[in-house]
Amino acid sequence: MTTTDNTITLVEPILEVRNVGKRYGAINALSGISTAVYPGQVTCVLGDNGAGKSTFIKMLAGSHSPSEGELLLDGKPITFSSPRAALDEGIATVYQDLAVVPLMPVWRNFFLGSELTKGWGPFRRLDVAAMKRITNTELANMGIDLRDVDQPIGTLSGGERQCVAIARAVYFGARVLILDEPTAALGVKQSGVVLRYIARSRDKGLGVVFITHNPHHAFPVGDRFLLLNRGTSLGTYEKKDITVGELTSLMAGGAELDSLAHELERELGPNSTLVAELQSEVATERPAASRE
Amino acid sequence: MTTTDIVTVATRPRLEKRPFRRFLARPEIGALVAALAVMAFFSFYTRNFMTLAGAGVWLESASTFGIMAVAVAVLMIGGEFDLSAGVMTGFSALIVGVLTTQFGLNIWVAVLISLATVLAVGALNGFLVMRTGLPSFIVTLGTFFVLAGVDLALTKALTGQVSIQGMAKVPFYDSIQPVFGASIQIGTGVFYVSVLWWFAVTALATWVLLRTRAGNWIFAVGGALQPSRQVGVPIMKTKIGLFMTTAGAAWLVGMISLFRTSTVQANTGVGQEFIYIICAVVGGCLLTGGFGSAIGAALGALIYGMVFQGITFAQWDTNWLRTFLGVMLLLAVLLNHWVRIRAGGTK
Q1: How many domains does chain A have?
Q2: Which of A92, B94, B106, B128 is the Cys-Cys partner for A169 at CB 3.0 to 4.6 Å?
Q3: Residue A39 lies in a domain
Q4: Contact B227/A99, CB-based, under 8 Å?
Q5: Is position A151 within any domain?
């Protein structure tokens, strides 16, 4: 099947996806996708716009249920009725819009929806001191130094906000962390901060699903790479079986590059230097890993 | 994203290093400064303003607007408007008036029926807004006109007049009147219990907003609805609760005006909904939601009460009151706009 089967891993995957697909009426958004998420590893989902990345994560996050195939949590088949149900199983999703309220202080955002309280009956009130302290230490643990958790979260940079959202998911007991294009809107430096943070979450033993269209962001932190193209899988590759150049080429459509070479060959003749270059590129960048 | 980053760079060091500037960024500061200025002006300009008699007058005037302004402010922080808030004060009082004078119902029962009815209207407002996704401005504009029509038509059909008189003759009137309409003489001044209600409502709203989960949810649903839903805030419950709170405050104000005068006009409260909104905005509420304070709204109402009565004390033409309010609203909005840019909101 896939290379994941050949990998000698002692740990069991937390979340496994087997041949799932999603149809919206007559439209086939996604079909035949398989991959696995291991604790302490990062599974990257790569694909260009419209490849089916969003549909894929919505199925993992419980927003949509798959039309075919199955999800396995700890080896047992499972279906999520809602994002809340997925959350209760420890599958937390950090969406692109981050689910933060810009005008509210960092600590209020951190605990929003799961506030700590003390007191009883009508005197039940927010435990402000504890929430501020926990926010401070949780962020410091992840290497974000905010001297003031009272500032509105809208005053943080995009990368920092992303990190707060991830820290929140980790604190509230996520086992699987799904990150939807966390670096898409960020500059180079900010992306670096987020990537380092992904690595830290992985080191804490979480299974991370990192969705991106940037192979240069995926490669340094990823352990395995699921490539999507127009709703189908181009295969799952282990890190040792692929280079960043091959990833890029696959995403850009290695097969299409191939057919372009043939087309040009007809027009320019087999001795054209351009065709030779293209062919050599196709030959070197085709990865050795199996395809689904 | 880039604009936010620029704002970050611009504001962060200031927020950390200058507590005074941070204090200035609080929502109620503008209203506090304005209230002190108005108070100082009329105290020096007129002889009777800063006396016990004078204070009794403008505090009473501010109190009923204050109760509503605080409720409307909490609703606005939650991202909604209620244009039916004004007419609901008259509606609640008319229910009591009609049930007691026309149907002979016990006044305590009538008061509770009034509360239940008004809360139901508030819940309906909230339900319609949440279910249809229509702006609350439109939905409550509809409720406003429906209730205004009901008030006038039913009162006229049942009593033949446009007001209900002679409430004081209703049995047990004296047993309930002090709760809403009592007054106490201090020196030369008369102080009504409504001022205490106003302080209590402001204190309660501040407590709820800043120190309870519900308060956190109100700021959240007003600041960013979709993200709030994603992190598990019960948005339906929160929003409907907010509309019911405004309705409950309208009931309180309706009872206060009923039991102070023992009469109720069919058009009571019509047109006052905008004054509540002005008080809330002057008090630092953002029209877009997610930011504001109950104390600020109370101060906004205090400014209104002081100006309203101050103009009379100064023997000016009271017709200029609205012009003054309009100018104050514009200044408050400009101040809020500036605050929001500094806070780096990305809406």
Answers
A1: 1
A2: A92
A3: yes
A4: yes
A5: yes
Q: Report the CATH number at residue A222.
A: 3.40.50.300
Residues of B in contact with A147 (CB under 8 A): 16
Query: Chain B residue with minimal CA distance to A149?
Result: B16
Contacts of A128 in chain B (CB under 8 A): 211
A170 assigned to some structural domain: yes
Domain B2-343 has CATH 1.10.3470: yes
Q: Do A108 and B347 touch (CB under 8 A)?
A: no
Taking the Cβ of residue B15 and every Cβ of chain A, the question of whether any pair is shorter than 8 Å is answered with: yes
CB B300 within 8 A of CB B117: no
Q: What digits encode the pLDDT tens for the residues A212-225?
A: 888 888 888 899 89
Are A155 and B7 within 8 A, CB to CB?
yes
Tens digits of residue pLDDT in B305-345: 999 899 888 888 888 888 888 888 888 778 767 766 665 44
Q: ipTM of this model?
A: 0.81
Domain boundaries, chain B: 2-343
Asked if B224 lies within 8 A of A126 by C-beta distance, the reply is: no
Q: Tell me, what's the pLDDT at B228?
A: 87
pTM: 0.80
User: What are the pLDDT digits (tens) for B87-128?
Assistant: 999 999 999 999 999 999 999 999 999 999 999 999 999 999
Q: Which residue of B has its CA nearest to A157?
A: B5
Q: How much is the mean pLDDT over chain A?
A: 81
Q: Does B214 touch chain A (CB under 8 A)?
A: no
Nearest to A117 among B1, B5, B213 (CB): B213
pLDDT digits (tens, 9 = 90+) for A28-83: 888 888 888 999 999 999 888 778 888 888 888 887 888 888 889 888 898 888 77
Q: Which domain holds residue A12?
A: 3-241
The answer to whether B290 contacts chain A (CB < 8 Å) is yes
